[in-house]
Specification:
It is built from eleven helices and 13 strands. A seven-stranded parallel beta sheet has the order 3-2-1-4-5-7-11, with helices on both faces. Strand 4, helix 3 and strand 5 form a beta-alpha-beta unit.
Length: 339
């Protein structure tokens, strides 16, 4: 099939379709809504659902309870399940299970009740577990955190839904590395802030690999896989191939934002002790040290060596290199930094 025919097929498939976005007000959800709204004018049915419902046009939805709406959804509609408790550490263990597992159950039940046959589920690389070993989509997941466990269980809940009607139902599972971009407010933003203030040092080593991906690539891939993947189950790791090292990331950020790259490596034993002391004394001093936590420091020193080869060989391959992504993000913030 030529490109023109594929475009016509996609537009025909989208006719009267509704895009139902659970977690529409989050970081990725906001970018996905912007992306969909910028698409062809015939794609104009976007249903935004979020617990916070702070953004224009979004509606309240708590995925921890059964989901019902007095609206008819065409069977060719697409559900994007982005809603999750994900910051680690940061929540009691049960919060990850209650939101991520119950949410998967309630969203797949919603799909059943409305005869919706396509779900795109944003999982995580957390189900692979912490290890230096290279991991692909075929690697046996061995999660070792409540978040990773909850995401793996959620994947299986979605797989059960698809297996009930294998000829008609489509499930796309994406496992992104650290997603960065405008309004991220997470790992990359904290890294830039620390570099900008001159107090970032390499934690234990310079060669730690960190699977990561630009948010604009993520939302494009969510959309394109929803329209173009065949019925069945498709799984993609979303990350650069190979995953960059922390030194690669710091050097790139420094070059783009005109900062000095970090040069000092602090031994891991010193970092762990320092982070523990700060996390204990902080509350007594009435201070909060964002990003300084023993578990978070430990995470910094372990590679997330995730294989992005399958994605790189597909039609959905990343369009931004690491440098292009950071530069584009910098442009989006009017070159005032990375926020």
């Amino acid at each position: 099939m030529d490109t023109h025919s594929q475009v016509l097929l996609s537009l025909n498939y989208c006719k009267n379709m509704k895009f139902i976005i659970f977690g529409s007000d989050g970081f990725i959800g906001t970018h996905l809504c912007d992306y969909l709204e910028a698409k062809n004018e015939s794609i104009n049915h976007i249903y935004k659902l979020d617990l916070r419902h702070e953004k224009k046009g979004s509606k309240f939805c708590d995925i921890r309870i059964p989901i019902h709406f007095d609206i008819e959804f065409p069977s060719n509609s697409v559900i994007f399940n982005l809603a999750a408790i994900h910051t680690t550490p940061g929540h009691p263990d049960n919060d990850y299970f209650e939101t991520n597992i119950k949410g998967a159950q309630n969203i797949t039940n919603f799909a059943r009740e409305n005869n919706i046959n396509t779900i795109v589920f944003t999982s995580s690389i957390a189900p692979y577990g912490a290890s230096e070993d290279l991991k692909s989509e075929d690697t046996l997941p061995t999660p070792n955190t409540p978040y990773g466990i909850s995401k793996l269980v959620a994947e299986h809940i979605h797989r059960t839904w698809q297996a009930e009607d294998v000829e008609n139902r489509k499930l796309i599972i994406v496992r992104p590395g650290v997603v960065f971009g405008k309004n991220e407010g997470g790992n990359f933003s904290r890294l830039y802030s620390a570099m900008n203030k001159g107090y970032f040092f390499y934690p234990g080593r310079e060669d730690t690999q960190k699977a990561c991906v630009y948010v604009k690539d993520v939302v494009r891939i969510l959309y394109e896989t929803a329209l173009n993947e065949p019925h069945g189950v498709s799984t993609y790791n979303l990350t650069y191939d190979p995953a960059p090292t922390i030194k690669n990331i710091c050097t790139t950020i420094a070059e783009v934002t005109n900062l000095s790259p970090p040069k000092i490596v602090i031994p891991s034993s010193i970092l762990k002790i320092g982070a523990t002391v700060i996390s204990i004394l902080g509350p007594f001093l009435g201070k909060r040290f964002a990003g300084i936590h023993p578990a978070r420091v430990k995470k910094l020193m372990i590679s997330t060596n995730i294989n992005g080869h399958k994605l790189s060989q597909s039609s959905y391959k990343l369009r931004y290199t690491l440098e292009e992504a950071v530069r584009d993000w910098h442009q989006d913030t009017d070159k005032t930094g990375l926020v």
